[in-house]
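Renewal narrative, Specific Aim 1. Our central claim is that a sequence can be written position by position from structural information alone. The example that follows is taken directly from our test logs and has not been curated for this report. It begins with the structure tokens describing the chain, in the order in which they were read.
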């Protein structure tokens, strides 16, 4: 019996050797064999990536046009757009219609609305009369100003979807009056930063807490959160694209903050590689954490008073899809602003955090909900934040998911007859439609 087993083992070893897969050598390979000719194997987690045909792009453009018409028709006589919260006294001091107006203008402009159109002129005329009050509104206003004057690339001149995204936008030149307005907005954001005091370095007493977050200025602050901070950094990034200087320490403190407030641990996840239209998972036996192939699904919370060590999904606290996408986006914006000043080891640390953030998004993937959030709440903001995170990171897939196609198809399926999106939750059809358009239109046009 022993002899028979020995011969069987020898036969198995010989078969592997003849097949060109020496066991010891394969286990010690430095890189996973990513041969595009290797057969498709769904049992190993391979997923075919559907081609985005002409019909898909046509359907998306129709959906965008219908949404754009809805937004334009929802504008009030004074040039503003109203939020569902405007009709609820309990939210009277929380947000006002000019934040909604800035968001609607941004969505229209990214959906190819002409910058001299009546809707755009009336909207900006309304905003110029309003005081700067809230972080969200100011950050989005800055993005809208930049979008209005940004050079619009010819889509047909760059036919490949992902090539358009990689090329990015040229610097935007603002008219002088708009430049002054942008500078005023940037000063507002810089003057309203707050100290969270919640980074691990500050908690452990290794360094003094610096201003690193944004909150709701005034009667609702200072309670800093990652959503306000995400939008503030987007606004400051828009200012930089228009030639307005933002102090480097703003980006440095943002980097430290988001690196320190990410979950400190998470479940192991395999990386994925895109090979000729297939998403392939890297088998666990070839993963090495030191090389960045072995990922841990680590997300971000809404508020930093939720310690990073305790915001794991299985503990019922609040790592969510929207905040994890916002964390990735914030890291990428800060990294881009400081790229020339970062040490290779620090860039590697950022890359690890981004990779683990995408591992979280892939593990808890959902197109109908904001992952780990209450039902439908803020799912349209989640779509927008995810688009930014994936586009800035040049990610075609999140986990095993073609993120753009899956969410775009869901949005087209759930768009209402009047061109809007609304799930009955706050903040209402104008905000939800604007976020949906920003997801669809900005991804189609590239950044």
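The sequence written for that structure reads:
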């Amino acid at each position: 019996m022993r002899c028979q087993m020995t011969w069987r083992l020898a036969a198995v070893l010989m078969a592997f050797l003849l097949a060109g897969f020496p066991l010891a050598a394969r286990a010690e390979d430095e890189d996973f064999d990513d041969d595009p000719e290797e057969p498709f194997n769904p049992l190993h987690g391979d997923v075919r990536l559907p081609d985005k045909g002409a019909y898909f792009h046509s359907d998306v453009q129709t959906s965008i046009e219908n949404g754009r018409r809805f937004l334009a028709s929802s504008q009030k006589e004074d040039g503003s757009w109203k939020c569902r919260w405007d009709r609820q006294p309990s939210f009277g001091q929380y947000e006002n219609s000019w934040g909604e107006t800035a968001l609607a203008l941004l969505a229209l402009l990214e959906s190819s609305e002409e910058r001299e159109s009546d809707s755009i002129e009336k909207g900006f005329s309304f905003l110029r009369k309003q005081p700067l009050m809230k972080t969200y509104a100011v950050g989005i206003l800055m993005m809208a100003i930049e979008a209005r004057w940004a050079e619009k690339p010819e889509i047909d001149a760059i036919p490949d979807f992902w090539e358009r995204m990689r090329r990015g936008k040229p610097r935007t030149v603002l008219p002088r009056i708009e430049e002054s307005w942008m500078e005023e907005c940037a000063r507002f954001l810089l003057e309203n930063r707050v100290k969270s005091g919640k980074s691990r370095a500050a908690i452990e007493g290794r360094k003094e807490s610096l201003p690193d977050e944004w909150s709701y200025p005034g009667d609702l602050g200072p309670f800093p959160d990652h959503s306000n901070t995400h939008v503030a950094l987007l606004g400051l990034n828009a200012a930089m694209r228009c030639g307005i200087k933002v102090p480097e320490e703003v980006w440095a403190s943002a980097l430290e903050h988001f690196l320190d407030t990410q979950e400190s641990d998470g479940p192991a996840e395999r990386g994925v590689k895109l090979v000729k239209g297939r998403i392939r998972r890297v088998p666990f036996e070839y993963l090495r954490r030191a090389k960045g192939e072995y990922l841990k699904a680590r997300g971000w919370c809404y508020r930093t008073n939720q310690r990073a060590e305790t915001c794991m999904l299985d503990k019922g606290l609040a790592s969510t899809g929207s905040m994890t996408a916002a964390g990735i986006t914030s890291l990428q914006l800060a990294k881009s602003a400081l790229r020339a000043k970062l040490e290779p080891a620090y860039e590697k640390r950022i890359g690890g955090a981004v990779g683990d953030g995408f591992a979280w998004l892939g593990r808890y993937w959902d197109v109908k909900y904001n992952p780990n959030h209450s039902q439908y709440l803020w799912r349209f903001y989640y779509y927008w934040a995810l688009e930014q995170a994936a586009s800035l990171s040049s990610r075609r897939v999140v986990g095993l998911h073609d993120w753009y196609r899956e969410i775009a198809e869901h949005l087209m399926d759930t768009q209402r007859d009047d061109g809007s999106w609304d799930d009955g939750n706050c903040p209402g059809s104008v905000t939800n439609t604007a976020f949906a358009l920003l997801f669809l239109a900005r991804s189609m046009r590239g950044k």
